[in-house]
Design goal:
alpha/beta, seven-stranded parallel sheet, seven-stranded mixed sheet, 22% strand, globular
Length: 434
């Protein structure tokens, strides 16, 4: 059984938000404060914020208190001083927590010391990385040790890739029969103020694309056999295509969703003998003008990212090279309030009693995951609910600890219900039998 019932139960804090004073961290700290005051926990949650500067961490708590209309939070929330470049300070933090919510990215540079400190000290941890190389690298290095210690290391628990990963499972659970393939389409809306993304994400993308060779090598090292394809083979779509469903142009989605969903499906197939679902992810981009703009920006990015001087340019001038989509300041509160996302899933499969190895798929389903601003609000909600699920749904987690995707860790927990209650809503749009 997980340590949350045992050793970690006696620790001073159930949740610690590490990197709480960073751009994403302060949304996460505010969300923990909101959840701590809410129905299920009603003031019983013991939690802390952690980072390098006491002043900044106090500032985060003051701002969160103000946003929640509370007089203050400092008397009920711990403050832990630690630094990602000082391993003994990370170990001290880990020893005080049952679960660490790690908000310090880019994870390819700063993620591993936190995972190591947590695993060494019997602490579970959650991160919001969308970097497959980091996520799969941690699996390779720490999965066995985490299993031995009975702790859960759950990566990609933000907007990358909780909606996609749990959305596929939700779709599977709502289809009568066997789901064999799913395509998702992401549509992001911004309000009149427009939108921008903090340049931390931009940096992760630069390094991720520059270093795809390492990811290939890493996957060779992990050495998984390809998953069997059950049911009709999912057709790949082009680099740009017109989507009849949305009446807009769409492109393959560049994020971590496909790699995360694939890892979940592998776990469910090998450990729980479930039928693996084929998956492809796309994003709608709008009319032809948007497509042309995007292609020029993309070409420039791909050319520059291969050279160190190009990466330096991209890193130095995010606004210029992303035509304003990425900024050093990140979005304003107004931009965040005006933004939302919808992820639509089109699934196909075989009705009950029909062998998915035979013939054409004969049932279809369409589901949706909708939520607030993807980059920061939905990411904070997803991360915090993943942490709460580790604490409250411990008996429904995988029997063994390990390094897991959200879908692998939480497929049997109440995570989808928790997300539904906190503004990330899962629904069935339509079902049809052929």
């Amino acid at each position: 059984m997980a340590t949350h019932g045992g050793a970690a139960a006696g620790r001073p804090y159930e949740l610690v938000v590490f990197g709480a004073s960073g751009f994403t961290g302060h949304f996460v700290a505010e969300e923990v404060a909101r959840v701590a005051a809410g129905d299920e926990l009603r003031g019983s949650l013991r939690w802390a914020v952690a980072g390098r500067s006491r002043d900044k961490l106090e500032g985060v708590l003051d701002k969160a208190a103000e946003r929640l209309g509370k007089p203050e939070l400092k008397s009920e929330v711990g403050i832990i001083l630690c630094d990602v470049s000082d391993p003994s300070s990370l170990a001290d933090m880990a020893k005080q927590a049952a679960v660490v919510l790690n908000c310090v990215g880019p994870y390819r540079f700063f993620g591993e010391p936190v995972v190591k400190a947590c695993v060494d000290n019997g602490t579970s941890c959650v991160d919001i990385s969308g970097e497959p190389q980091f996520l799969e690298g941690m699996y390779l290095k720490y999965n066995d040790k985490a299993a031995e210690k009975g702790v859960y290391v759950v990566g990609s628990s933000g907007f990358d890739s909780v909606p996609a990963d749990m959305g596929v499972l939700y779709t599977r659970d709502n289809l009568k029969g066997t789901l064999t393939a799913v395509e998702s389409f992401l549509t992001v809306k911004s309000g009149p103020e427009g939108y921008s993304i903090h340049d931390g994400t931009w940096k992760s993308a630069i390094h991720g694309l520059a270093d795809q060779d390492s990811l290939r090598k890493l996957r060779k090292q992990i050495g998984h056999k390809p998953l069997p394809i059950i049911g009709a083979k999912l057709k790949r779509r082009g680099l740009v295509f017109y989507s009849q469903e949305f009446k807009e142009y769409s492109i393959p989605f560049m994020g971590s969703d496909v790699s995360v969903v694939k890892r979940t499906q592998r776990y469910l197939h090998t450990d729980l003998q479930e039928t693996p679902v084929q998956y492809a992810a796309y994003a709608t981009v709008g009319g032809i003008a948007s497509v042309i703009k995007l292609m020029f920006a993309g070409l420039l990015f791909f050319l520059l990212v291969k050279f160190s001087f190009g990466r330096n340019l991209l890193t130095k001038y995010p606004e210029f090279f992303s035509s304003g989509h990425f900024t050093k300041k990140g979005p304003t509160q107004k931009q965040i309030d005006g933004s939302s996302f919808t992820m639509t899933f089109f699934g196909e499969g075989y009705c009950e009693g029909q062998d998915p190895q035979q013939g054409k798929p004969n049932v279809k389903i369409c589901t949706q995951v909708k939520g607030p601003d993807a980059g920061y609000v939905a990411t904070a909600v997803a991360m915090v609910q993943a942490g709460v699920a580790l604490l409250k749904d411990a008996s429904s987690l995988p029997k063994q600890g390990g390094v897991y995707t959200p879908g692998a860790a939480f497929s049997k927990t109440k995570l989808i219900d928790r997300l539904n209650k906190h503004g990330i809503e899962f629904s069935v749009i339509s079902k049809s039998e052929a």
